[in-house]
Amino acid sequence: MDVKIESSWKRELADEFGKDYFHSLIKFVKSEYASHPNCIFPKGDEIFKAFDSCPFENVKVVVLGQDPYPTRGHAHGLCFSVEPDVRPLPKSLNNIYKELETDMGISPRDNGDLRHWAEQGVFMLNSVLTVREGEANSHAKKGWERFTDAVIGKLAEKSEGIVYVLWGSKAQEKGRVVNASKNKIITSPHPSPLSSYRGFFGSKPFSQANEYLKSVGKEEIKW
Hints:
Elements: H1 7-12, H2 14-17, H3 20-35, E1 40-41, H4 49-53, E2 61-65, H5 91-104, H6 115-118, E3 122-126, E4 131-132, H7 144-158, E5 163-167, H8 169-174, E6 184-188, H9 205-215
Parallel strand pairs: 2-3, 2-5, 5-6
Antiparallel strand pairs: 1-4
């Protein structure tokens, strides 16, 4: 199957694209876009934006989300990030900005577009890459999880010295294949208002990530 995705990822994931489950997944996704026009997010050409924005060899930090925002105009292919004109910001992203300010002294940006992270090597991957408007998890258990498991597995197999930021139990479960002795794994509760008070605030993920990157001779992220 010819998947329109950044060339280094296309090379690394070539075997995955040929598997039966992936063909079934793409058939399902195409049918959803056809039967629910303008109601499947993100837009078709942004499904693989996390990959297009951060080539395989450039990955320094992995941030794992769940599925795209199901609110119209929000999702654009990078977990937790939203289009620049979105107001108000999603609550989880607000909490991420609050922790960033506490941790690094960086004042919140005036928008929720996190593309500048991706451009520096932050791979911002959702476990599920598409969603139907207003229906969180509507595209779960259709094959995306298997695909993104393979993505993390490929990074874990071929790369080391990467920071994995795993917020919440689902992300932490997905990160079990990562060798903690060869990478940095940062875990905490999810930044959602439902769980952030349980230990997300005060977890200092941004400074931890930069300290580790510096220790392995990599450029720190300008969060």
